[in-house]
Amino acid sequence: MTARLGRQLLALLSTLLGVSLACYLLRQQMPEQAAPSVLGFGRYLLDLLQGQFGLDQNGDAVLHGFLAVLPASLELLVSASLLAVLIGIPAGVSAARRHQQWLDRLVGAFTLVGYSVPVFWWALLLVLWFSLTLDWTPVSGRISFLFDVEARTGFILIDTWLARDAYALEAFLDALRHILLPTLVLALLPMAMIARVTRAAMVDALAADYIRMARGQGIPEWRLVWIYALRNASQPVVAVLSLQLSALITGLMLVESIFSWPGVGKWLLDALSRGDYAIVQGGALLLAIVLVVMNFSMDLLRLWLSPPERGRRR
Amino acid sequence: MNSRFVQRFISHPAALPALFGLLLILLLAVLGHALSPFNPVLVDPHAQLLPPMWQAGGVAAHPLGTDDLGRDMLSRLLHGARLTMGSATVALLLALVAGVLLGSIAGLAGGLPDLLLRRCMDVLLAFPSILLAILLSLAFGGGMTACVMAVAIALTPHFFRVCRDGLCEELGKDYVSAARLDGAGPVSLYLQTLLPNLAAPIVVRGTLAFSTAILDIAALGYLSLGAPAPTPEWGNLLASAHDFIQLAPWTVTLPGLAILVTVLCANLVGDALRDAVNPRGANP
After folding, report:
1. What distance, in Å, lies between the first and last C-alpha atoms of chain B?
2. Tens place of pLDDT for every residue, chain A, 314 residues?
3. Residues B20, B27: contact at Cβ < 8 Å?
């Protein structure tokens, strides 16, 4: 287990090194930069290790700007992932239990459409229906400008909850209504993915011998399905998710740009259109680092989920 | 391509309609120039924001209506099919060649090259296609080339993984040892024994990657990171229609529907192919 963990950590470090090398090489392609050199890369790495990711046009550190917008992105990512898991896993499990019946086909059709819908188009349609026609939800932003919420954690749902003044509840509900549409849009792809992989893995798991044996022993059916089979089916789900993480981040950046959600994606795209290249380069590297770390934690989760792989060499 | 495989593919209920749909869309994309009634960038001040012909106020000359500058939607969609699917195909082929080449090297060589290449692919996986497009447009200037490159690079790790993992699995099997004992050299072992067995999973991955490529290219066009503004790329069409969403909903729904139908057909064909290749259909 320790050797396995050490190998994973080594892989993490080398990937991080590769990511910064890629960013360095791309940066040196800019017109006014010197040709890439080993010494230059060493200096660049040293700067990174000291937390210096460059200065933006106003002279502020890019790292500070990134940390200021990161919570908004994480909030959206977490709420979308929660929704995707809460709907995707039960949908996949129930489809697998009724293999080849109408529910299975319904879930199959839904996942296929979820895979195929362009995220930005889906967002525009939802805005057209819910915001412009029905006027149920706001079009953009995180909270109405009427509320002045003190930023303690950076997560607006927690901050409005912590505010504890006379309008705390209104502010919380307002923030909830703001996050509703972006969450629905962003959750569609991971929801379809989770439902599909869960279904396939559960069909296999439910047909396995250990399930028939456990059924013969009189273990209740819900326990068989939701504990025994699901635990073994969860590993491919995590594997597929970690491969699709970058697709999720692409969706996140699109959603942020459409709903003017003040997160990392909008920050990067705004900086690009402003011509603030230091933010784009430093921010892209930081975002890539976040992705590598998320991938790493997914790998750890998969390791933890699969007992036989804990001691085995890859 | 044996007949059992074709039979399994056809027995999938949605496979043939989706295949014909995809072929029809490809045909429309190829013939787009000849079929479109108007020049896609022709501005007509007398025909602004005309609805499609089945709605009140629509005219038969513009069957799918016009946009805010009076440009014919049907012509723009047809030209867009060529642009979007053409660049998606180029990106897909680039990723396929690079992924299969690197995957073969990693799978056959093993050891240190394998390790290094796998790390490189992990690095690529850390850059989503939008992020890559942003960085490439900074370094080499924006436009379609940077967009296609970004999508191709983002797709490469998927092909690499299919090819490398497939090779590792096949190399341990008996028929490979038999061919080796028969005196097959490394080149003929690879080309005649191993590659035919890898072709099926690579083709399946390719069909599914085609839909990803279309979605990515349209997304980059929507964020104006891809083709420049007046080009009728499908994502560009959506971006320019964004401000008229209430006034002229068809300018938003039609390009989106075009993307949805194309990607849906590609995904259905990909699913049917995968089920035909791997009847158990367990791994996604």
Report:
1. 22
2. 678 788 888 888 998 999 999 888 888 887 777 788 888 889 888 888 888 888 888 888 889 989 989 999 999 999 999 999 999 999 998 898 887 788 888 898 889 998 899 988 998 888 888 888 787 877 777 777 667 776 777 777 777 777 777 777 777 888 888 888 899 999 998 899 889 888 888 888 888 888 888 888 888 888 888 888 888 788 888 887 777 788 888 899 999 988 888 899 999 999 988 888 888 889 999 999 999 998 888 888 887 877 665 444 44
3. no
DSSP-H helix ranges across chain B? 3-11, 15-35, 73-109, 111-125, 129-140, 144-171, 174-181, 186-188, 195-222, 234-241, 250-277
Using CA atoms, how far apart are residues B5 and B10, in angstroms rounded to an integer?
A: 9
Identify from B112, B125, B137, B207 which residue to disrupt to test chain A contact, counting A C-beta atoms within 10 A and taking the largest count.
B125
The answer to whether residue A197 neighbours chain B at the CB level (below 8 Å) is yes
Token couple for A162: 């912590």
Residues of A in contact with B223 (CB under 8 A): 253-254, 257, 269
d(CA B186, CA A120): 48
The span from the CA of B25 to the CA of A304, in Å, is: 46
B281 CB within 8 Å of a chain A CB: yes
First to last CA, chain A: 12
Judged by CB atoms closer than 8 Å, whether chains meet at A254 and B260 is answered as: no
**What's the token pair of residue A153?**
């954690």
User: Does the CB of A27 have a partner CB in chain B at under 8 Å?
Assistant: yes
Is residue B164 within 8 A of residue B101, CB to CB? The reply is no
| Residue A103 near residue A109, CB atoms below 8 Å | no
Give the contacts of B114 (CB within 8 A, at least 6 positions apart). Answer: B106, B107, B164
Q: What is the ipTM of this complex?
A: 0.84
Residue pointed to by tokens 């057209």: A128
Residue A269 with chain B: CB contacts under 8 Å: 134, 223
Measured distance CA(A222)–CA(A203) in Å, rounded: 15
* Whether the predicted pLDDT of B97 surpasses 90: yes
C-beta atoms of A291 and B128 within 8 A: yes
Q: Which of helix, strand or coil describes residue A238? A: helix
Task: Please list, in sequence order, all residues whose beta carbon lies within 8 angstroms of the beta carbon of residue A193, skipping any fewer than 6 positions away.
Answer: A84, A88, A111, A114, A115, A240, A241, A244
Helix (H) or strand (E) holding A69: helix A62-97
Half-sphere exposure of B158 toward its Cβ, with a 13 Å CA cutoff?
31
Name which of A195, A148, A188, A141 is nearest A167 in CA terms.
A148
Distance CA B80, CA B33 (A): 10
* Nearest one of A188, A176, A82, A175 to A126, comparing CA atoms: A188
As a whole number of angstroms, the distance between CA B214 and CA A260 comes to: 24
- Tokens coding B175: 């028929």
- As a whole number of angstroms, the distance between CA B132 and CA A9 comes to 25
Two structure tokens written together for A307: 């007992």
A47-to-A30, A50, B191, B255 alpha-carbon distances in Å: 19, 5, 48, 46
Asked if B119 lies within 8 A of A23 by C-beta distance, the reply is no
Which of A246, A268, A281 to substitute to test the interface with B, most B CBs within 10 Å?
A246
